[in-house]
Amino acid sequence: MGLPSRKATCNSHGQDSSYFLGWQEYEKNPYDEVKNPKGIIQMGLAENQLSFDLLESWLAKNPDSAGFKRDGKSIFRELALFQDYHGLPAFKKALVDFMAEIRGNKVTFDPNHIILTAGATSANETLIFCLAEQGDAFLLPTPYYPGFDRDLKWRTEVEIVPIQCTSSNRFQITESALEEAYQQAQKKNLRVKGVLVTNPSNPLGTTMTRDELDLLINFITDKEIHLISDEIYSGTVFSSPAFVSIMEVLKDRNHENTEVWDRVHIVYSLSKDLGLPGFRVGAIYSNDPIVVAAATKMSSFGLVSSQTQYLLSAMLSDKKFTKEYISKNHRRLQKRQSKLVLGLEKAGISCLKSNAGLFCWVDMRHLLSSNTFEAEMELWKKIVYNVKLNISPGSSCHCTEPGWFRVCFANMSENTLKLAMQRLKLFVSSITINSQSHQEFKNSRRKARTNWVFRLSFQSFHDREQEER
Ligand SMILES: Cc1ncc(COP(=O)(O)O)c(C=O)c1O
C-alpha cells in the first residue's frame, strides 16, 4: 500500500547517464561572466540562442500576436476556452508550409496528416506507442541522442537495438550494419518494428547522404517495417551538402501512395530551428491514416496551448519573416560552428566535418590515457570538474569508439565560446607538456605510474590558468 508504481521506480529513464549528470553539475556551478567567471560553461545543451533578436524584433512589430489580440481587439476569451482539441487549423497550415520551406519547397505537406505534440519528445514517444508493443524493437544508428532511451523505451517498454556506425566511414549507415542489428534483435527474440534515424544527426551534426536514405528505404521495404525520420534539425543545415528529407526520397522514387509511403513517419519540432524548446511545439507527420488517427487521440496527453499556436501561426505565416529568419539563422550557425572548429584546432583537436546542427562531434581520442570507456569517463570528469566545461561524452550517445564528445556552440555568447576554447587549449597543452616530462621521467627512472600524467597536468593547468588571469 502507498508504494509508487513499478514504472515510477524503474531506472530505465536514463537520467543517470553522464549526459544528464553533466547538466546537474553545471546547475550547481553555472558560469556567469560577472557573477561566476570560474563556473562551468554549458556546452552540453543543444539550444539555439543565435537568432533570438530576429524573433524579438518580429514580436515588437507584431504586438497583437503575443498580446491575445486580433485586429486590435482582445481574443483572450477565445484563446482561454477549449479550442479545436487537436490544433488550430491556421497553425497546422502555417507549420506544414514552414516545413516545406525548410526543404526548399521540394516537397509539400498536407495539414490533415500532421499531429501536434508537446515537442519532439512527445512526438517520438507517441509514434512508438502507435507502431510497437512491449518487447518489440526499433533499430537506431549509433551514436544517437541520449534522450532517446527515455523517449522511445521508458514508458513504452520497447527496446532499442543499435546499428553500429564507426569513424571509419564518418559514422554512416551501411547495409551490413543494418543487417547485423536486425539479426541481433532476432537473437534476442525481439520483433523489429522499424528504424529510427535523426537527419541531420544529433550528435554528429551531419546530414544523411542520398545513398544512406536509399539504403534505408530499401531495407524497410525488404523487411516490411517502419521508418521514423526525426528531422528536428532540418532548419539548421548551414552548408552543403543540402538537406534531403526522407519525403523527398520517397517522392523521387515514386513511392507515393504505396505501402512504403504509409510506413514512413517524420518527427519535427520548433525547439531547434526556431530556438523555442520552452514553447513545447512538436509534430508527427504520417501518411498512414491509421497512425494519424491513433496519434491524434494520443496527443491529448501533450497538446500545444492555444495561445502558443496563435502566436506562432501569425509568425510562421509571415513569409517575409520566415525567409529572412531561415537564411540569417543559417549564416549565424555557420559562423559560430567555424569559430568552434578553429578554437578546437588551436588546441590540437579535430572534429567530424559537419554541415548542420548546434554542435560538433569532437575527436579527443588522442587525449585518452587508454582506448577504453573508463578513460573516456576519466577525461570527461577532468573536463567538467577541472577545465569547467560541460560537454557530452560519446558513451552517453552509445558511441562504440571511446574518445568522441559532443560539444554545443549555439547556446552561449561568442565571448563565452572564446573563453571555453582558451580553457581547453591550456588543458591540452598542460597534458602535452606533462606527458613529455612524464616520458623523460619514465626513461630516467623506468617506473610507470598511471595517474601521474593527469595529476600533474591538472596542477599545471590550474597554475597556468591563474597566470593567464
Ligand atoms: C534528435 C532529437 N529529437 C528530439 C529532441 C527533443 O526535442 P523537443 O525539445 O522538441 O522535445 C531532441 C532534443 O535535443 C533531439 O536532439
From TrEMBL:
Aminotransferase class I/classII large domain boundaries: 41-424
Domain of life: Eukaryota
Pathway: Alkene biosynthesis; ethylene biosynthesis via S-adenosyl-L-methionine; ethylene from S-adenosyl-L-methionine: step 1/2
GO molecular function terms listed in the Swiss-Prot or TrEMBL record: 1-aminocyclopropane-1-carboxylate synthase activity; pyridoxal phosphate binding; transaminase activity
GO terms (BP aspect): ethylene biosynthetic process; fruit ripening
Signal peptide residue numbers: none
Keyword S-adenosyl-L-methionine: yes
Gene3D superfamilies noted in UniProt: Aspartate Aminotransferase, domain 1, Type I PLP-dependent aspartate aminotransferase-like (Major domain)
Keywords: Ethylene biosynthesis, Fruit ripening, Lyase, Pyridoxal phosphate, S-adenosyl-L-methionine
Pfam families listed in its UniProt record: Aminotran_1_2
Reported cofactor(s): pyridoxal 5'-phosphate
Enzymatic reactions: S-adenosyl-L-methionine = 1-aminocyclopropane-1-carboxylate + S-methyl-5'-thioadenosine + H(+)
EC number: 4.4.1.14
Entries under PANTHER family matching the protein: 1-AMINOCYCLOPROPANE-1-CARBOXYLATE SYNTHASE 9 (PTHR43795:SF10), BIFUNCTIONAL ASPARTATE AMINOTRANSFERASE AND GLUTAMATE/ASPARTATE-PREPHENATE AMINOTRANSFERASE-RELATED (PTHR43795)
Entry similarity comment: Belongs to the class-I pyridoxal-phosphate-dependent aminotransferase family.
Known role: 1-aminocyclopropane-1-carboxylate synthase (ACS) enzymes catalyze the conversion of S-adenosyl-L-methionine (SAM) into 1-aminocyclopropane-1-carboxylate (ACC), a direct precursor of ethylene.
Name of this chain's protein: 1-aminocyclopropane-1-carboxylate synthase
